[in-house]
Write a structure and sequence with these properties.
The protein is α/β, with parallel strands linked by helices. The protein is built from twelve helices and 24 strands. The relative contact order is 0.16.
Length: 452
């Protein structure tokens, strides 16, 4: 990179990083967008990929394709692991565990959040979250494999446990997953099995609150509850999931009382989020205050206190109770890009102001919720508005067109076109797989190479 142009390094290709890089696409700066997946993921539709409605290509797009015509934007595959704020340098790890470094003048942290198991990381083995494409494909595999295994078992408790699905967390993602699983059981798979009746599948939705969708207005949450119950979802509210194992879950009532055990061979986790490791590393290195989930406190312009050259956007922002939603990340990305542009022009930065564009949740075919200020929609009207909003922000015209066609086809018939899954090869040599796992001996990694 030339020394005459400001170097902007963006960590994360989600909504915040994507919109920030887009807005800087024609600015007099050199932008490097570093992402551990090399693609932008439309995370709000992950559950539709997990349940077979949409394919990976419908909800993701390679970052290189996205910025192919922006000559000042370089996209790199790597996971940020270390910050040297004195030298203004970030060390990143490649998938093969080697490392390289990137220098910056402005650093934008848009790394997002990861699934939180509330200090019980062992739960992840039996209860995948819903944050990545790998999560969605893992859930799809478990969902449809459960019905296949049940088909081979005689009637009894073991078969029943394979036909029981437990979802921890009754926020938008949990509600959407629960509704979709029941729709798969009652509609998609209705006439495909001979030994079992897929409609007998139980879907249990657990949450510590007293109602589902706590971020929505009470009347909309009540309508969501009625829709879920009509679909056959069993609500278990006022409880915490305190153990997850191969055979099922254990829940503890908040108000006291004995633990309750549920046999369920498929458990899905949507109950909480926490900062990714690099965000916590940033907070430690910069001595920046952060909350229990790892959200970093920032100034009014979204910069880290004492470090005007470092911005934090999206879910990681710990200020003014900003919501962890796509709209906040998009607006934050645009705001930071504006701050950078204003700096190039010698103008002062402006304070970030979030504009709430509402909340939406999809429950089942023809049923969704939308809340935008005083406007509240449910049922078919909510479903239609939900679809239009999501299509409008999908990355790439091709994605929008293909998603519309897929949804129309799904509405017309019971089948889901993208429910194929693979069980994997147990004989594959793990040493030949590219992985983000940590090396036991950091000193054995090859020397980092700097990108100037």
């Amino acid at each position: 990179m030339g020394d005459h142009r400001m170097r902007v390094l963006i960590i994360g290709g989600g909504f915040g990083g994507l919109f920030c890089a887009r807005r800087l696409g024609d600015a007099n700066v050199e932008v490097t967008l570093l992402d551990r997946a090399a693609g932008h993921l439309f995370q709000p539709l992950l559950y539709q990929c997990a349940t077979g409605t949409l394919s990976i290509g419908h909800i993701s797009r390679p970052l290189r394709e996205e910025f192919a015509h922006h000559r000042n934007v370089t996209t790199l595959l790597g996971e940020a692991i270390e910050l040297d704020d004195a030298s203004r340098r970030v060390t990143a790890r490649r998938p093969d565990e080697t490392t390289f470094t990137i220098d910056y003048d402005i650093l934008v942290i848009a790394a997002g959040m990861q699934q939180s198991y509330f200090r019980n990381p062992e739960f992840a083995q039996w209860a995948p979250g819903m944050k990545t494409l790998d999560d969605a494909l893992r859930i799809r595999q478990r969902l449809f494999t459960a019905f296949e295994i049940a088909e081979t078992l005689p009637a009894g408790p073991e078969r029943d446990s394979w036909l029981t699905f437990a979802v921890a967390g009754a926020g938008p993602t949990g509600v959407e997953l629960a509704g979709q699983i029941r729709e798969v059981a009652t509609r998609t798979l209705a006439n495909e099995f001979h030994t079992i009746d897929p409609e007998d599948a139980r879907v249990l939705l657990f949450d510590g609150g007293d109602r589902v969708l706590k971020s929505f207005a009470p009347d909309l949450a009540s309508k969501a509850t009625a829709t879920l119950q009509r679909l056959g979802v069993e609500l278990r509210l006022g409880v915490h999931v305190t153990d997850v194992c191969r055979e099922g879950v254990t829940v503890t009532p908040k108000g006291g009382g004995p633990d309750q055990e549920y046999s369920a061979r498929t458990v899905l986790w949507t109950a909480g989020v926490e900062a990714v490791p690099f965000a916590r590393h940033i907070a430690d290195v910069l001595a920046a205050p952060s909350d229990g989930c790892g959200r970093i406190q920032v100034e009014a312009d979204l910069s880290v206190p004492g470090h005007p050259e470092i911005f934090v956007i999206g879910d990681l922002v710990g200020r003014d109770e900003l919501p962890g939603v796509a709209e906040n990340a998009m607006q934050g990305g645009l705001h930071v890009a504006s701050c950078i542009r204003r700096g190039l022009e010698g103008k002062p930065r402006r304070a970030y102001r979030y504009r709430d564009l509402g909340s939406a949740a999809y429950i089942s075919r023809w049923n969704a919720l939308l809340q935008v200020g005083p406007i509240k929609l449910a049922g078919f009207a909510g479903w239609l508005a939900w679809g239009l909003i999501h299509i409008a922000v999908l990355t790439g015209v091709r994605n929008r067109a293909s998603t519309v066609m897929t949804w129309l086809a799904t509405i017309a018939r019971a089948g889901r076109y993208h429910r194929a899954f693979m069980l994997g090869d147990s004989h594959a040599n793990s040493e030949q797989r590219y992985t983000w796992s940590d090396c036991a001996d950091q000193s054995t990694r090859p020397q980092a190479r700097r990108l100037d």
